[in-house]
Amino acid sequence: MGEVLINDRPIEDYSKKELFKRAGVSLQSPDLYSFTLGENVNLGELEESKETLIMEALRNIGADSVIKKTHKKGETPMTKTFEKDGVELSGGEIQKVAIARALYKGADFLVLDEPSAALDPEAEDHFFSFLYNSPRDEMVLFTTHRMKNVKLADRVLVIENGRIVESGSANALIKQCGLFAKMCNGKGVTM
After folding, report:
1. Can you give the pTM of this predicted structure?
2. Can you point out the beta strands (E) in the chain?
3. pLDDT per residue as tens digits for the range 145-172
4. Does residue 18 fall inside a structural domain?
C-alpha cells in the first residue's frame, strides 16, 4: 500500500477545509446550478464574487459564447428555473463553466474528469492549449479517452480493471508496445 502526500505531509494531516481550498475539480457531467454565472463559478465563496476573476477564468478556457450570453455579466441567472431572463447553456458551455469553477479557485491541484467530453474540437484544442501553456504551477490529473490529449501529459497512467498497468510518458509507452500503444494505434493517434 502507498500513501498520499501533499508537500511531504500525509493527506490525513489536512482538514477538509484545507483540502477543499487546495483542489479544484471538474467532472465529466457537471452540474449547473440555478444561481447566477458568478455564483456558479465561485462556488464555495458565494459571499465574495470577484467578477473580473470570474470573467478571466471563463476567457482563459475559451468560454466567450457564455460571456456573450450574459446580459448582466456575473449576475446573469444561469437557468430559467427562478428567473425568466435566465440563460440556457449548451452541454459544452456548461462544461466550460465547470472548468472555470475549478480554475477560479487558484488551487494547487486540479482533477479534471474527461474535461473536454462535451466540447467541440476547436474548444477542446483551445482548452488543452491553455492548460499546457498556462503560467500557473498547479498539478493536473485528468482522465480521458481522447488519446490526442494524452501526449500533453508529463506522465500517463494506464488503468485496466482498476489497476495501473503502465506508467510513463506517452512516447515511452508507445515504444513499449503495450496496452497504451494498442489504444493509440486503434484510434489512429501518433505521438
Report:
1. 0.83
2. 5-6, 9-10, 23-26, 109-113, 139-143, 156-160, 163-168
3. 888 888 888 999 999 998 999 999 999 9
4. no
